[in-house]
Every structure is written in structure tokens, then in C-alpha cells.
């Protein structure tokens, strides 16, 4: 069900875009910030991403996680679930798969400070809040770190 997917493939890039736009719109509502870059990301920009993507597929792409790894640190860039599939354990499965797959010393991730469900998910895996930073006037994100 969870496999590496090739975002350079146009169909896969379209699938990524088709679920990340509505998912990030929901996060934008939670944050009160509608300029999240992934909402307006083009197919071409997705294809040019240097992130590694893992997709949760069951007949079609239902969610994905993307990351970059450098010097023993895995930086999670995106964790996206099709809003029609919320509360099905897909995000948990993707994070768990990544943690099991990568033999890294540390994992880091940032999410909107107002995104309480994401905070709870990462904390359930042992991630600890590290810092909060402003991304726009009055809008903050929180970075979490898991040291293995």
C-alpha cells in the first residue's frame, strides 16, 4: 500500500496536486493563512521537487508523505491525506512507515501551530516541540523533532 512514487511522472504529479490542494486549504483555514505555497503549486513545480515521495495507494492515491534526508536527519516536507479519507489512519501509517524505513538519527517536521490534529499525531510518535516561528504577520508554525 505504501510505496515510493515518482513525482516526475505527470499523472502522479497531477494526483499529488489533486489531493494536496484541498488538504492544504483545510490547513489554511485552521491557520487563518491562505498563502500556503502548496495550494498553488503547479504540476511542473511538483515534478521538479527534489523531495522523495511515499504514496499510500489503495486503488488510487489517498495520501502521501515527502521528505529530504541529509546528514542523518530526515526532514518531513509534506504529509497530505485526501480530505475524503481523513480519520482512516492514513497519516499515521505514512509517518510510521517513514520512521520504520529510514535509519536516521533525527526526524524533523513543521506544521501550522493551529493544526492541532497534526501536533497530536507527531507527538504520539514521540516528536517534541522544538520552536515556533512566524511565517506571516500573526501566523506561526511549530517545528517538531524526534531524536532516535
TrEMBL record:
Q: Name one Pfam family in it.
A: Acetyltransf_1
Checking InterPro entries in the record gives: Acyl_CoA_acyltransferase, GNAT_dom
Q: What is this protein called?
A: Alanine acetyltransferase
Stretches assigned to the N-acetyltransferase domain: 3-148
Listed CDD domains? NAT_SF
- Write down the species: Planococcus rifietoensis
Q: Name one GO molecular function term.
A: acyltransferase activity, transferring groups other than amino-acyl groups
Question: What taxonomic classification does the UniProt entry list for its organism?
Answer: Bacteria, Bacillati, Bacillota, Bacilli, Bacillales
Amino acid at each position: 500500500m505504501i510505496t515510493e512514487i515518482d513525482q516526475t511522472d505527470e499523472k502522479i504529479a497531477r494526483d499529488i496536486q489533486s489531493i494536496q490542494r484541498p488538504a492544504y486549504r483545510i490547513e489554511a483555514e485552521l491557520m487563518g493563512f491562505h498563502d500556503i505555497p502548496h495550494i498553488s503549486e503547479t504540476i511542473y513545480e511538483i515534478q521538479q521537487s527534489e523531495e522523495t515521495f511515499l504514496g499510500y495507494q489503495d486503488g488510487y492515491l489517498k495520501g502521501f508523505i515527502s521528505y529530504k534526508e541529509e546528514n542523518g536527519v530526515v526532514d518531513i516536507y509534506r504529509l497530505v491525506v485526501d480530505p475524503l479519507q481523513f480519520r482512516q489512519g492514513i497519516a499515521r501509517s505514512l509517518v510510521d512507515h517513514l520512521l520504520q524505513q529510514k535509519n536516521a538519527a533525527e526526524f524533523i517536521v513543521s506544521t501550522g501551530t493551529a493544526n492541532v490534529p497534526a501536533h497530536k499525531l507527531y507527538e504520539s510518535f514521540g516528536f517534541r516541540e522544538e520552536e515556533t516561528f512566524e511565517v506571516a504577520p500573526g501566523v506561526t508554525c511549530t517545528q517538531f523533532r524526534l531524536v532516535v
